[in-house]
Amino acid sequence: MRIDLITIVVDDYDPAIAFFTGALGFEPAEDSPSLTNDGRPKRWVVVRPPGGGTGILLARADGERQRAAVGEQVAGRVGFFLRVDDFEAAHRQMTAAGVEFVTAPRTEPYGRIAVFLDVAGNRWDLLGPA
């Protein structure tokens, strides 16, 4: 058993794809036409970290309730965690790509950490070895 996908609600597909593939280095896994439950067109967009693992379904907000959730999926808490082998290199690359870090890198008992915002405004931990 494994978690295959999680959903991040975004304002629009293409800026989200650009952020995850460009700034974070994820790989596009799928971008297919689809339909909402009531038959309106949408896209099924999945990105994954290099080498696979749990993917992210980038879901364009549909309706006022979903638009209100953009950037607030976990009520302002860090809700997503990106673990890397080389923290300093990943932090440099992400900073150069324009990723907004809201904390400076620091060392905790569980490793190096810095909090950044995704394209929707959700908080993520960038995590690496101590």
TrEMBL record:
GO terms for molecular function: dioxygenase activity; lyase activity. Residues 2-129 form the VOC domain. Keywords: Dioxygenase, Lyase, Oxidoreductase. InterPro entries: Glyas_Bleomycin-R_OHBP_Dase, Glyas_Fos-R_dOase_dom, VOC_core. Gene3D superfamilies: 2,3-Dihydroxybiphenyl 1,2-Dioxygenase, domain 1. This is Catechol 2,3-dioxygenase-like lactoylglutathione lyase family enzyme. Coiled coil: none annotated. SUPFAM superfamilies: Glyoxalase/Bleomycin resistance protein/Dihydroxybiphenyl dioxygenase (SSF54593). The keyword Transferase does not apply.
